Amino acid sequence: MKHYQLYIFDWDGTLMNSIDKIVHSLQAAAKASDLAIPDENASKGIIGASLTEAAKILYPGIEEVKIEQLIKHYKQQYLTINATPSPLYQDAMQLLVKLHAKDKLLAVATGKGRQGLERVLAVSDTKHLFHLTKSSDDAKSKPHPDMLEQILQELEVKAEDALMIGDSRYDLKMAEHAGVDSIGISHGAGCLTSLNACKSRIIVHSIKELSKLIL
Questions:
Q1: Could you tell me if 164 and 174 are in contact, meaning their C-beta atoms sit under 8 angstroms apart?
Q2: Which tops the pLDDT comparison, 181 or 48?
Q3: Residue 36 CB neighbour total at 10 angstroms
């Protein structure tokens, strides 16, 4: 497979096994906000989008005040209340370290807010491995290409020299819109059907399989 100058990773469901924590936090936040509680599939289906965009998808026509309330409760749940473990996926740290040792540029493009992203980077001890990180507070929500376009511009890399890796259709559609190659990974939030419907180079099923392709 082609070797790229820049490798851009989604976070939740790609590098970190945080899907259960996100789903449980979202369901608790919906209950606290007096909104219909989304089932597991619906909750997984919005992972990758910003919280504001996710609220609009789950609750069409929702008022801004309700969106703010939902986001407030979600952040409380995710950051301080919900104790569901969220480890890095097996082999994720090794992959990042090896890419970094090869002098590859590494970046994160995530639908998480900046506060949440900084927290998980610190907890996972991975912040030093990334040259740039972008959150939903820094750019328009996926699948808009804004996040990737910012990364390419700031790191001075051409689109054809970058690879996006993500577990949801939001990641792969964002890459498509930005003219960036992508690899889908099926161990996260996205189902194989939705991933296969996107124009990614390939779909892998684990970090180990991904490592064999890109190292």
A1: yes
A2: 181
A3: 11
Contact between residue 76 and residue 51 where contact means Cβ atoms under 8 Å apart: no
Say yes or no: 189 and 99 in one domain.
Answer: yes
Place of tokens 């296969």: 196
**Phi, psi angle pair for 115, to nearest 5°:** -60, -45
Say which amino acid occupies 116: G
> Could you tell me the CATH number of the domain that includes residue 53?
1.10.150
In CATH, what number is assigned to the domain containing residue 162?
A: 3.40.50.1000
- Residues, the chain: 215
**Rounded distance, CA 135 to CA 115, Å?**
9
Residue 110 φ then ψ, to 5°: -130, 155
Contact at 8 Å (CB) between 107 and 126? no
- Residues 173 and 141: beta-carbon distance below 8 Å: no
Q: How far apart are CA 99 and CA 106, in angstroms?
A: 8
Helices marked H in the chain = 19-32, 40-45, 51-58, 64-76, 92-101, 114-124, 146-155, 169-178, 192-196, 207-214
Q: Reply yes or no on whether the pLDDT at 135 is more than 90.
A: yes
Q: Are 2 and 161 in contact (CB under 8 A)?
A: no
pTM summary value: 0.91
**Side-chain half-sphere CA neighbours of 79 within 13 A:** 14
